Amino acid sequence: MAENRASAYTEGVPCWMDAQLPDLEAGKRFYGELFGWSFDEETYGRSVLARLEGEPVAALAPKTDGRMPTVWTVYFAAPDVRALAARIGAGGGQVVTPPARVDDLGTAALAADPEGAVFGLWQPGSHPGFGRRHEPGTFAWVQLYARDTEAANAFYGGLFHGALFGPGAEPDFGRAAVSEVFPAEMPPHFLVHFRVADLGAALDTVGRLGGRVQVPPFGTSYGNVAVVVDNQGASFAVLQR
Predict the structure, then answer these.
(1) Contacts of 189 (CB under 8 A, 6+ apart)
(2) What are the VOC domain coordinates in residue numbering (predicted)?
(3) CB 60, CB 19: distance < 8 Å
(4) Is 95 exposed, middle or buried (0-12, 13-18, 19+ CB in 10 A)?
């Protein structure tokens, strides 16, 4: 369990994720049944921690503004979040939400790359990130769907000092052209993948809980994937390896 209970993540490694939802209680019911999560009674800020077998795996938060998207956001580890935020602008991206402390848990920021794909940065305090990953019901992968994949390589390779897409990169983050999976007009975006033991059973459960399949199962180099939408409109992928 040592790999899953990672106490620290190197710069540029996906280390956390959260969902902004209109109805937090509905989200707890949906993801609790789909992935077997339990939820803390106590909140930090307005967010609630989701746990699998006692370890933190994600957070759900109620949307404070109806104009905000209903979406899953991935956070990349940032040992020095303010220095990293400064490099985003230099690389042609934009800081959407400046670094801010989240109680004693850490410091978070939101950013967008040059094509507009939104992602988070996380500098840990008492909360290093995922307590479990790479197993059913937890984070398995995040895919960037970009229009210009070479430009994405250059931006993220420069931002995280070559930590991604290159030799030795931790196999948690990939990139592909939007048109490989989605209609060409789909905006560039990150897609969080959850590992499941049985892809067909997971899709049946998503449908029963009021979600829907957005992209039917297809094969990738990292497993069989389907893209789904939850019962409130947040897209994510389920992955069977």
Answers:
(1) 117, 118, 144, 145
(2) 13-124
(3) yes
(4) middle
Q: Give me Rg for the CA atoms of the chain.
A: 17
| Predicted pLDDT of residue 168 | 44
Write down the pTM of the prediction.
Answer: 0.94
Q: Which helix (H) or strand (E) element contains residue 33?
A: helix 24-35
- 69-104 tens-digit pLDDT: 999 999 999 999 999 999 999 999 999 999 999 989
Tell me, what DSSP letter sits at residue 114? Answer: T
Contacts for 225 with CB less than 8 Å, ≥ 6 apart? 193, 217, 218, 219, 237, 238, 239, 240
Residue the block writes with tokens 């490989």? 180
Two structure tokens written together for 158: 């420069």
Angle at CA 41, nearest 5°, toward 39 and 46?
Answer: 90
Task: Find, among 210, 205, 212, 217, the residue nearest to 228 by Cα.
Answer: 212
**Euclidean distance between CA atoms 66 and 15, whole angstroms:** 27
> Tokens representing 154?
């250059």
The CATH superfamily of 14-240 is 2,3-Dihydroxybiphenyl 1,2-Dioxygenase, domain 1 (3.10.180.10)
